[in-house]
Amino acid sequence: MPAASEHRFRRLTLGLYACVLGLLLAGMGWYLASTWREQLHQTRDQLHALTQLTHQAVQIQFDQYARNLGLLASQLQDGHELDPGLVRRRLIQFAQSDRGIAVLNVVGADGQIVASTALATGAVKPNLNANPALRGFLDQARAHPRALQLFHPIVSPLVHRLVLHFVLAEPTQNGSLFYLIGGIDMGRQVQLYHALLTPRQRAAGEVIGVLGQGGYLFGAWPIPGLNAGPPGAQGNLDNFLLQPRNGALQQDLLKHPEALQGDVDGLINIGLAKTEYLGAFQRLTHFPLYAFVFAPKPLVWQNWWHLTLAPLIGTAIGIAMLTLIMGLSLRLQRQWFLDTQRKNEQLRSAYQAESRQSTALSLLGQTLVMTMRAPDAHAILQGLCALATEQLGCALVWVGRAAVNAPRRVSVLASAGHTAYLDDIEIALDDPQTGQGPFAHCVNSRQPVFFGIDTPAFHPWRDRARAYGIQDILALPLPMGTGQIDHAVLFYGTHPGFFTDAHVVDTLRQMVQEVALALQSLLARQALERARHAESAANARYHQIFSNLPAGVIVFNAEGRVQYCSAAFIGLYNLDVDPQTFVALASLSLHRVIDDGHCSASSCARKGRRGVSQPGRRG
């Protein structure tokens, strides 16, 4: 099978492997993408569910704070300025009823604290307007009376704990305002958020909390200590509390301030932690707060990886098996193609050998027919040259003979092909330059000689050979039966290696041998014809001499039969027969005919035949 078929079959196999591998990879890619989308959808559903729970818990908490504080404010409308002790007792009772309240104050319209759960009745009470941050709280509450306002966590100057400040402005009967300012203990608030998470969720690093005004976060996530922050936190607690966290949720809300709920993807706090999260959020009613839940993306990736690990291993095993099968298939194909190619080479070699043998037999047959039909030696030699050029594709074939006498010049006897190459060519065996070529080597060694045009001994004819496209030369001796080799046949090839095929050389040698035998036979026939012609001429002369003699002459051969009979001999016996009648008669038969004394030519001939068939019988 040709090599092209092997390559085509290999390409088909590799193409099929690539298609199957592509389908496997495409299917696995689709499966991974779909499972990732499903994992994201499932995670977001879980986050939304937990966000809804957080929203309900925080909403209930702050709604309860708003109702209770509103009730407390209505009770204090008439008595907060008259009896600070009574006001303080009521504040303490309210704070004790809700352990989440860390501190609760009644502040007058001028910012002066009237009563506080953290200060005794006779203690010096500060003015909140002196604190810029707290003065901002009062301004905001004054702008929205009878509405509970929440602010970001700060460290309370009264209880020295981290609290979430709230303010409620309530008018008195005379139209002036007083303020209920308190702080929710962040420790207890964080415990509320922690309770909403399962231990597995807390261990996985899920984050739950509330986003307040200005991008402040508080909830179940690490909060810096008083003097230093956790790993990744920048600055201390003061910087953490005073600077808003510009996270993904804050960025999303800045772009969509009207959003009530949604999904978010990115960092919780830029500069605080580098872990990206997936999250969901929902806005609280009546409060500028957003309840949120975040799950770290590595957790989502980990859950997705656990889900897809087994299919990935199965696909990898399938690809490995497919690759192994493809490799074995290619190896078996290669072995099969090599075996097939080897068998084809054997068949081709056998066919070529048979074809060469057939061609050789055909050429030898043509050579034999040519030698049998050729009238003379020149025709035989010319036929040899023509067959070699026409059937074997030789550029030039010629037969030469070296003269006996010095300088033993070579003459061309026959040629075919590019015979112009031989025009004015000079070859002499005794010449130091032209006597070293293929003809001289062949005649001198009496062996076949192979020459290339680049052989130094062929230098005198190199340019001439290149002009006619000649590359290789083969010289074969032509024995003429004289015992001396002075004839040679030269064959010229058109490309290098033309005569490297042993079969071609053997065919040419056999052709030359047949021609040599034909020439020897022709020369022998010609010599025999000349001998016979000379013998016939001598016999004719002898017969003429015998015929002119007056005496009768009869000649017998070694077998005792008449070879010649003269007319004078017939006349001696007065016989009326032709002298040729006695030719080939035996001597006894001749005597019997003569003893008869007379006979006709026909009777004499009959008697002579009987005498020949029955020797020694007399009539």
TrEMBL record:
UniProt keywords, alphabetically: Membrane, Transmembrane, Transmembrane helix
Transmembrane annotation, as ranges: 12-33
GAF domain segment(s): 376-520
Location of region: Disordered: 600-619
Pfam families, sorted: GAF_2
Species this chain originates from: mine drainage metagenome
Protein's name according to its UniProt entry: GAF domain-containing protein
InterPro entries in the cross-refs: GAF (IPR003018), GAF-like_dom_sf (IPR029016), PAS-like_dom_sf (IPR035965)
UniProt keyword annotation of Hydrolase present: no
